[in-house]
Amino acid sequence: MISPAQTPLYEIKANLFKALAHPARIRVLELLSAAPDNSAPVSYLLAETGLEASHLSQHLATLRRHGVVTSTRTANAVTYRLAHPTIAELLAIARAFLLDSLAGSNEQLKLAQTLPSEHLKSPTS
User: Fold this and answer.
1) What is the per-residue pLDDT across 43-97, written as a single tens digit (0 to 9) for each?
2) Residue 30, CA distances (Å) to 12, 20, 45, 48, 117 in order
3) Which of 3, 25, 58, 93 has the least C-beta neighbours within 10 A?
């Protein structure tokens, strides 16, 4: 068994992406990215995500465990913050990639729609 210090970087990256692999966690990160100082109280995250408090808590714990967010408590309020500003950049890059991919798919769809209708008939008709 290898020690955590010997874990290959590609494995650490894979675990990071596993931590991001839920729509609710991505939504939380997008909200934090858009918030002033990349931070927001749990009450705001609850209102914006519409999640039950227990579900949001589980998602935040996963993000915290993987070092993606940090939290601070002041009296009864807990505020979450992106652990590093490059998390916002990662989200922006993913968005650009996806928009480019969807644009390519849209172009293929437009080309397919210009084919003569006899190309669209099934061979059994």
Assistant:
1) 999 999 999 999 999 999 999 999 999 999 999 999 999 999 999 999 999 988 8
2) 22, 11, 10, 11, 43
3) 3
Q: End-to-end CA distance of the chain: give it in Å, rounded.
A: 61
Task: Tell me how crowded residue 63 is: count the other CB atoms within 10 A of its CB.
Answer: 24
Helix (H) or strand (E) holding 112: helix 86-113
Q: What is the pTM of this model?
A: 0.79
Give the type of residue at 106: N
pLDDT at residue 111 is higher than 80: no
* Phi, psi torsion values for 22, nearest 5 degrees: -150, 135
40 and 69 in contact (C-beta within 8 Å)?
no
Rounded CA-CA distance 35/48 in Å is 12
CB 91 within 8 A of CB 29: yes
Tokens of 125: 């008709």
Cβ-contact 81, 37 below 8 angstroms: yes
